[in-house]
User: Which sequence fits this backbone?
């Protein structure tokens, strides 16, 4: 348990490595998605291009948006961007830093999808099979076919079972050619992305290190401040609710006693804390009334201050308090009849 | 404080092992990448060489750059190199030491890729089958020049209709693979001998300078981590103070506006502190609205 706590604290204090973890998981998810996806080229002249390029470009866009959605800091960025200036100036450098760091992380999963797709080769083979150079790769002495016929034959290249153009151009030759181009594009894309990432990371200390340290500090500050504010509000809400509910039960029990004209019963001396916690409700009927009242008529969100008369409209004003001898510790400050 | 100490100890003891771990992971990733990559030689005269050599040399560059990106120490070294001198002199020996240690770790994954590629042989067969001398092989000796290039280019593709069960294709393939594996093993042997000598002979030269450089490079690394941790802790305390001030100012404002009679009787200190005098739905709404529209200034003096 102690080790877990230490690891959790390490991740909490190291927000960046936590975000990197999510980033890595999304990249793995994107490879898994690709291998689980059942690629099915339509093998028709104009549909091939649309399908192939669609599979190449639409999922990365979805993954990019998903990268933003899953990032908790996006709401923080939006809030900091849109808040009125008030007494605290806004620093555009901080906003830029937050946006850049989120965008960089969101780019990883789409880049992985595009590289895996290109290195695998099926998408490019499907999309560009009608553009294969038949003159150089195929049989030049084949009887002339109309352009449309040639397109239809070439479009069937990805579907080996129905391919009928072996005399025009061998299926394996065309597939190998297209796959070679696709893999070359894939490796070039990966090299480009890696070089960009390397340049972005290594040029920063050379140019704007001080500004970077400032932006990073204040963006962490905004994050921590928001979390602490939420914690403080949660504590406040808890205390508020506790006092509100106690005042409700006090009100209930007093009013019921007043309504039934019972003499205030002194709690036995040795009952102690348990009797206090019962808040004056000691039988089923009273409890049922309390529950019904809680549902039908929730108390106002207004805690009674101790010295003000609490005119809440119930009968029983002027009655002596129900617990004269053993006032409850929590409610003594907020409840007294004057 | 205890949490701080645990985290510092973790960083201190594990800086080098974290870097070695990343290095090892990348080497494994490079082997896995090679085995899962579907090598598919185009078997066309002009494209073979480009494809074969491309697959042999482009991924190592990518792996090298990845190692540099993932290694935190490269950033630390760059910062140390580019920082203004200020009141602390810069020691070039330390920077050189850091640079050499980063480069050594970054070279492992690319070398693993190249060695695995050579030992497997497919890349070299694809790249150099077109450059073979056809006279050496019976099946290609009597073919016309134009045709021989096409045929040699198809050697890497076993399933091609022209090359199926062609004994000369197998001969060329075996010949190239033999060269490829010999090259692979030689490179591996040379590198291991070089690493062995470097490690064994290093204490003979400048051991004292080396110890100093290593100490100070560790120092710079730890100093930076501790600075970041301290900044985090500071911003936490700053935020805490800022929020306390904000709630205090809200409480004062409410007291000014609500004209409540002075309260008598004991009050539960804990509850009072946590409620900040905010006991009403409207007051809570006002607090939240003020937090959004007018965040407090960044000044806790």
Assistant:
């Amino acid at each position: 348990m102690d080790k877990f706590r230490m690891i959790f604290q390490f991740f909490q204090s190291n927000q960046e490595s936590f975000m990197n973890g999510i980033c890595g998981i999304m990249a793995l998810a994107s490879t898994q998605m690709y291998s689980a996806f059942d690629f099915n080229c339509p093998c028709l002249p104009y549909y091939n291009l649309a399908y192939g390029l669609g599979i190449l470009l639409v999922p990365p866009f979805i993954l990019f948006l998903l990268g933003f959605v899953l990032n908790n800091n996006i709401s923080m960025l939006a809030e900091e961007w849109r808040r009125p200036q008030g007494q605290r100036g806004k620093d555009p450098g901080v906003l830029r830093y937050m946006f850049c760091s989120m965008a960089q992380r969101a780019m990883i999963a789409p880049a992985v999808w595009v590289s895996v797709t290109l290195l695998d080769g099926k998408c490019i083979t499907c999309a560009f099979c009608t553009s294969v150079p038949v003159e150089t790769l195929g049989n030049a002495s084949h009887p002339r076919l109309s352009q449309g016929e040639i397109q239809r034959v070439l479009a069937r290249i990805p579907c080996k079972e129905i391919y009928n153009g072996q005399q025009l151009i061998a299926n394996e030759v065309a597939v190998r050619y297209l796959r070679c181009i696709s893999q070359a594009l894939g490796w070039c894309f990966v090299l480009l992305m890696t070089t960009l990432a390397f340049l972005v990371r290594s040029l920063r200390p050379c140019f704007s290190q001080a500004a970077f340290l400032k932006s990073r500090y204040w963006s962490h500050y905004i994050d921590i401040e928001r979390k602490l504010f939420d914690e403080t509000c949660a504590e406040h809400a808890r205390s508020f609710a506790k006092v509100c509910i106690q005042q409700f039960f006090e009100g209930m029990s007093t009013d019921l006693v007043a309504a039934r004209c019972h003499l205030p019963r002194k709690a036995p001396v040795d009952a102690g804390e348990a009797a206090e916690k019962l808040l004056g409700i000691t039988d089923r009927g009273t409890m049922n009334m309390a529950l019904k009242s809680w549902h039908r008529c929730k108390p106002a969100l207004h805690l009674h201050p101790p010295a003000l008369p609490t005119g809440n409209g119930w009968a029983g004003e002027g009655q002596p308090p129900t617990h004269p001898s053993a006032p409850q510790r929590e409610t003594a400050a907020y409840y007294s009849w004057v | 404080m205890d949490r701080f100490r645990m985290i510092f100890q973790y960083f201190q003891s594990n800086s080098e092992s974290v870097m070695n771990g990343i290095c090892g992971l990348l080497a494994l990733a490079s082997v896995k990448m090679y085995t899962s990559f579907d090598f598919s030689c185009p078997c066309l005269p002009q494209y073979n060489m480009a494809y074969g050599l491309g697959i042999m040399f482009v991924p190592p560059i990518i792996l090298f750059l990845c190692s540099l990106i993932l290694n935190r120490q490269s950033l630390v070294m760059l910062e140390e190199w580019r920082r203004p001198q200020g009141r602390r002199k810069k020691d070039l020996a330390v920077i050189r030491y850091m640079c050499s240690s980063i480069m050594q770790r970054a070279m492992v994954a690319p070398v693993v890729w190249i060695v695995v590629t050579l030992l497997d042989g497919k890349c070299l067969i694809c790249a150099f089958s077109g450059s073979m001398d056809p006279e050496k092989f019976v099946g290609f000796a009597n073919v016309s020049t134009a045709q021989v290039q096409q045929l040699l280019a198809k050697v890497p593709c076993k399933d091609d209709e022209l090359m199926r069960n062609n004994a000369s294709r197998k001969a060329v393939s075996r010949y190239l693979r033999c060269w490829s594996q010999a090259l692979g093993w030689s490179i591996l042997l040379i590198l291991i001998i070089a690493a062995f000598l470097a490690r064994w002979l290093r204490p003979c030269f400048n051991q004292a300078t080396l110890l100093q450089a290593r100490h100070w490079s560790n120092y710079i690394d730890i100093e930076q981590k501790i600075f970041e941790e301290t900044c985090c802790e500071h911003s936490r305390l700053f935020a805490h103070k800022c929020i306390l001030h904000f709630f205090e100012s809200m409480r004062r404002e409410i007291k000014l506006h609500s004209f409540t009679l002075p309260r008598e009787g004991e009050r539960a200190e804990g509850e009072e502190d946590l409620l900040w005098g905010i006991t009403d739905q409207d007051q809570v709404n006002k607090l939240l609205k003020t937090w959004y529209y007018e965040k407090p200034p960044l000044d806790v003096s």
Summary: Chain B touches chain A through 74 residues (CB under 8 Å). Chain B has two domains: 1-204, 209-257+271-300.
